[in-house]
Design a protein that fits this description.
By secondary structure, the chain is mainly α. About 70% of the residues lie in helices and about 0% in strands. The chain is built from 9 helices and no strands. Helix 4 packs across helix 5 and helix 5 packs antiparallel against helix 7. The protein is elongated and about 55 Å long.
Length: about 190
């Protein structure tokens, strides 16, 4: 039971922090405000994070929470292609509507500049497990090419998503990320269809 409470505490801190970052901005949000919003304590905060910067990489946890939320809806999709497009559309919609450009840029720079754990590349994340499962299913059904490994397809898919996000950040969100990916992701994925 303690492990579940630990996850809940950490999750509350992460959720509160990202809510405040979005509403107030990263620089304007204090640790005290995060603690108050999450209804935890400073001790709990520092148990999980070395400081506010330590929260930057936790955005990947929010993404994974979104994927967990979407799993039941995936069952309604009939093909691997539909499932991958659905996940992409839902994630990019979440990012476009609730993650500020500044925070996304900080996340990417923190992953590039720091020598610490690269959360976005962690193969044990729900994101990668879900993608591997969908691609495996697509290969077994004959929908996706089998001359390319599951891991190669998953890596290329994740790379394409990161490239789209990076470009969107470079362009300061001048276009709809979700709408652009509706065009680009099918073009990209068509190379892996059988």
């Amino acid at each position: 039971m303690a492990k579940k409470n630990n996850r809940n505490t950490k999750g509350r801190i992460v959720s509160a922090a990202w809510k405040l970052f979005y509403e107030q901005g990263y620089d304007e949000t204090t640790i005290d405000e995060i603690v108050e919003e999450s209804e935890t304590s400073k001790g709990s905060f520092y148990h999980y994070f070395s400081g506010k910067d330590g929260l930057l990489s936790s955005l990947s946890y929010l993404f994974d929470d979104k994927y967990k939320e979407l799993i039941p809806e995936l069952e309604e999709k009939t093909s691997a292609f539909e499932k991958l497009m659905f996940l992409n559309r839902e994630l990019f919609s979440m990012i476009e509507n609730s993650i500020s450009m500044d925070l996304l840029a900080r996340l990417y720079s923190s992953q590039i500049l720091k020598k610490s754990e690269k959360h976005l590349l962690d193969q044990n994340r729900i994101y990668y497990k879900l993608l591997r499962s969908i691609v495996t299913e697509g290969q077994k059904s004959g929908e996706l090419r089998q001359d390319v490994t599951v891991n190669e397809i998953v890596k290329a898919y994740a790379l394409c998503e990161r490239a789209l996000l990076y470009d969107w950040c470079l362009c300061n969100g001048d276009y709809s990320l979700m709408q652009y990916s509706k065009t680009m992701m099918p073009l990209f994925l068509s190379g892996y269809k059988k």
